[in-house]
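User: You have something folded?
Assistant:
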Amino acid sequence: MKQFIRVMKALSDPNRVRILKILAKKELCVCELRELIGLAQSTVSKHLKVLEDAGLVDYRKEGSWFIYRLTSGEESEYARVMLKNLKGWLDDEPQLLEMVDKLPHVDRERICPV
């Protein structure tokens, strides 16, 4: 029950859903997500922590950057099922479409302080 509630709570915030949808397109660091979503870096980091705790995202360290990606969902059946279903949902949502359009122009080398 606890894992189910954690996943559902993580998905209850529109910004966290946007993060998941954009990470489905490409692995990104916090500052790239901040640039796309338009939230403060600390807010994006808090959202990522909630998503990580729910088993929806994980990260790897690359130099001074933490690069986030969707998980395979192996740790949680709920996370796996929701990530699979989310792939086909909300693709016509205006804010997501705008973020996808910006994605090729977001470059961590340019926007992230090292």
Remarks:
- The helical segments are 2-10, 14-23, 30-37, 41-53, 77-86, 94-102, 108-111.
- The first helix runs from residue 2 to 10.
- The longest strand covers residues 57-62.
